[in-house]
Amino acid sequence: QVQLVESGGGVAQPGGSLRLSCAASGFTFNNHGIHWVRQAPGKGLEWVAVISYDASLKYFAESVKGRFTISRDNSKNTLWLQMNWLGVEDTAVYYCARDMGISWTRGYFDYWGQGTLVTVSS
Amino acid sequence: EVVLTQSPATLSLSPGERVTLSCRASQSVSSYLAWYQQKPGQAPRLLIYDASNRATGIPARFSGSGSGTDFTLTISSLEPEDFAVYYCQQHSNWPPLTFGGGTKVEIK
User: Fold this and answer.
1) Which B-chain residues 46-75 have CB contacts (< 8 A) with chain A?
2) A76-108 pLDDT, tens per residue?
């Protein structure tokens, strides 16, 4: 069955960095784009970033552009979100989510991981 | 950026009732709208994509309709497990992908 497992969350200081990982299994990883979506405590969902199935396209929300990068290794069925210059507003549960499109990115999410909590605090 | 507005923010209902949730877009998104269900402590689950297509494994009591700027998610008869928060999301004009603020369906 399709599984996405996030890791790497934790506490970071303002201005600090964290690197989140998302390990995928149960599907052909290199056929799907993968997104990161976050949810601040008690708030709604916010799309963060996407990487296409072949890593040729990467898009970011304005709120993280220039601070976050996204990458993937299709040989390891893993992707990463490198988060730099963290601010308190980045505190959230971060989910990786599979794009439903096959070999193209449709822009909606058919499978989600369980999420990893990132807390930015001094 | 497409802004999605969901209404109402909260609905208090009883099991067996029919539910209609609304999502309005600030500009046309054609039929490129999805609905998700989220229960406390869980990740969201895709219910509907392309406005009216049920995702794999979603019960037939869930249906979606609409196009352009006005969309509806209907639950024909509420089951106890349907009490949750529902989000709409557009995938027409992106990036960015955007979500509505959510509607909480709670037990009356």
Assistant:
1) 46, 49, 55-56
2) 999 999 999 999 999 999 999 999 998 888 999
